[in-house]
Amino acid sequence: MTAATLDRTDQTAPAATPPERGQPRWVRPSVFALLLGAAVLYLWDLSASGYGNEFYAAATQAGSQNWTAWLFGALDSGSGGAITVDKPPAFLWVSGLAARIFGFSSWTVLAPQAIEGVAAVGMLYLTVRRTSGYAAGLLSATALALTPVAVLMFRFNLPDPLLVLLMICGAYAVVRATEKASARWLVLAGVFLGFAFLTKMLQGFLVLPAFVLVYLLAAPTTIGRRLAHVGAAALALVVSAGWFVALVELWPAASRPYIGGSTDNSLLELALGYNGFGRLSGGDGNPGGGGNAGFGGSSGLTRLFGASFGTEISWLLPAALIALVAGLWFTRTAPRTDKTRAALLLWGGWLFVTGLVFSLMNGITHPYYSVALAPAIAALVGIGGRELWRGRDHTPARAALAAMVTVTGVWGFVLLHRTADWLPALRWVVLVAAILVATAIAVGVHQFRRAATVLAAAAILVTGLGAGAYGVATAAVAHQGSIPTSGPVTNDFGRGPGGGGPGDRTGDSALTSLLANTTTTWAAATEGAQQAASLELASGKAVIGIGGFGGSDPAPTLAQFQQWVHEGKVRYYVTGGMGGMGGRGSGGGIAEWVAANYQATTVGGATVYDLTS
């Protein structure tokens, strides 16, 4: 897609040498400034968000108190945990260790994701730089750092930040493997994706088709060796993901927490059911989005541009699609091992498969899932922009580059208009500047003396202005609840402390004091995990969340709960969570049994049963 692909008499190839050889002086300070800026953006005033997502914060707290709870990702620490969160535990391993070492706090809950975000930015730079040079690497990494949904996620405690980091690490390993047909690097890519599975299950595998395609197409060795290397990497993936699945299956169920979100206490069933095909079809407790913005809105090919996803991820998406199509066309006659085309296929395949799944899935689809698209979009814009600029003396390249700038300005105007009261002049600045810069590119203004540098800087500024401003505004807003959203206004769904979220008892000092003074294995049991999480964070004690996250998991059973009560392991039963008494979170008759055998009292507005009386 460079001048070399537009005019075959020019055989200049993009720089892909390691930084130690021939690195320009501006590279190292630029990379340092980028990483420092990302760290400030993700860490500044981080504690304003409190514990962020209370559900996962409570699991972090439990992991800091009990090693079995840490290993399985339990919501509570009592006897190793009664029930786990509805995701695999890898991201909780990180925050749980941080909380155990440095003490449980808002920072140890949220800072691990910020550090993972900085690492993701750095890894994207390293990955793109190897195929497309320093400038493309910096452009791509900067675009990722400022993407609004990335800023949101790297300041919040959800599995997605670690997932994104692991997938980028996998992409880096694939690039290294493809350079010299290295089986070792390809196996390492399989290991990264195996741990991505332990972070967010099958979503970590959405990049697999692109990884396999690139290696089979571009690795400089025979097809037999390429197939053998892919087989070895597949084995590494199965081992790195499967060891924990096997551990859960082999561990005696009576001495570990119930696997939340599953129907049969199985991690594999959770991966294939509620967190797997149920997300695609809408079954297994996965309601569709429909008109609910927090659940992605209606499915369809335009979902990523719609009201739920648009301001999260689509700022540079049109430009990325133009870069992908133009790049594949301009490199259509390149050799099989061409690095630029391989890079386009890597990130384009990542974007196509993941974007298509997010657009068409009928189950639970939260807008923040789109952070998984951010690295691919950023890489395509960085690679495409840099290579088209190198071919700027040719009309087709200039036209494609001008189209990227124009469509980014126009679409940025549309997205900024969705929050019309916030910096209303900005959208006009973005639109007018984009049209002016695109016109200058199209007519060849770069040919004038010293104009090329100014024009390139203007193009970068214009294309990043809208998303960058929106990303910085996202960092300035505190986020809480189960479904955070980016932007200058807080529209988070299921907010926690002070936000009226379900089961919020953190402000109830009388109830908090009551639970904090208990000495039993569990201070209390309550209906639903979100109510339990709120009580745990307020009291520092273990609380059983009967029914798990959705309140409908078959755990604990009535017989199991009765045994714990008779053994004196549970002190109180607190009502008022998801479903209320006898409702969705009744836990198979637990609420009725408690009401029939114990006397209710009122503590700070909550109905409490003393299970020791």
From TrEMBL:
<feature type="transmembrane region" description="Helical">
    <location>
        <begin position="452"/>
        <end position="473"/>
    </location>
</feature>
<feature type="transmembrane region" description="Helical">
    <location>
        <begin position="342"/>
        <end position="361"/>
    </location>
</feature>
<feature type="domain" description="Putative mannosyltransferase YkcA/B-like C-terminal">
    <location>
        <begin position="517"/>
        <end position="597"/>
    </location>
</feature>
<feature type="transmembrane region" description="Helical">
    <location>
        <begin position="182"/>
        <end position="199"/>
    </location>
</feature>
<dbReference type="InterPro" id="IPR038731">
    <property type="entry name" value="RgtA/B/C-like"/>
</dbReference>
<feature type="transmembrane region" description="Helical">
    <location>
        <begin position="26"/>
        <end position="44"/>
    </location>
</feature>
<feature type="transmembrane region" description="Helical">
    <location>
        <begin position="428"/>
        <end position="445"/>
    </location>
</feature>
<dbReference type="Pfam" id="PF13231">
    <property type="entry name" value="PMT_2"/>
</dbReference>
<feature type="transmembrane region" description="Helical">
    <location>
        <begin position="397"/>
        <end position="416"/>
    </location>
</feature>
<dbReference type="GO" id="GO:0009103">
    <property type="term" value="P:lipopolysaccharide biosynthetic process"/>
</dbReference>
<keyword id="KW-0812">Transmembrane</keyword>
<feature type="region of interest" description="Disordered">
    <location>
        <begin position="486"/>
        <end position="506"/>
    </location>
</feature>
<keyword id="KW-1003">Cell membrane</keyword>
<dbReference type="InterPro" id="IPR050297">
    <property type="entry name" value="LipidA_mod_glycosyltrf_83"/>
</dbReference>
<dbReference type="Pfam" id="PF24878">
    <property type="entry name" value="YkcB_C"/>
</dbReference>
<feature type="transmembrane region" description="Helical">
    <location>
        <begin position="133"/>
        <end position="152"/>
    </location>
</feature>
<keyword id="KW-0472">Membrane</keyword>
<feature type="region of interest" description="Disordered">
    <location>
        <begin position="1"/>
        <end position="23"/>
    </location>
</feature>
<feature type="compositionally biased region" description="Gly residues">
    <location>
        <begin position="495"/>
        <end position="504"/>
    </location>
</feature>
<feature type="transmembrane region" description="Helical">
    <location>
        <begin position="367"/>
        <end position="385"/>
    </location>
</feature>
<keyword id="KW-0808">Transferase</keyword>
<feature type="transmembrane region" description="Helical">
    <location>
        <begin position="158"/>
        <end position="175"/>
    </location>
</feature>
<keyword id="KW-1133">Transmembrane helix</keyword>
<dbReference type="GO" id="GO:0005886">
    <property type="term" value="C:plasma membrane"/>
</dbReference>
<protein>
    <submittedName>
        <fullName>4-amino-4-deoxy-L-arabinose transferase-like glycosyltransferase</fullName>
    </submittedName>
</protein>
<feature type="transmembrane region" description="Helical">
    <location>
        <begin position="205"/>
        <end position="223"/>
    </location>
</feature>
<dbReference type="InterPro" id="IPR056785">
    <property type="entry name" value="YkcA/B-like_C"/>
</dbReference>
<feature type="domain" description="Glycosyltransferase RgtA/B/C/D-like">
    <location>
        <begin position="86"/>
        <end position="241"/>
    </location>
</feature>
<feature type="transmembrane region" description="Helical">
    <location>
        <begin position="230"/>
        <end position="248"/>
    </location>
</feature>
<feature type="transmembrane region" description="Helical">
    <location>
        <begin position="313"/>
        <end position="330"/>
    </location>
</feature>
<dbReference type="GO" id="GO:0016763">
    <property type="term" value="F:pentosyltransferase activity"/>
</dbReference>
<keyword id="KW-0328">Glycosyltransferase</keyword>
<dbReference type="GO" id="GO:0010041">
    <property type="term" value="P:response to iron(III) ion"/>
</dbReference>
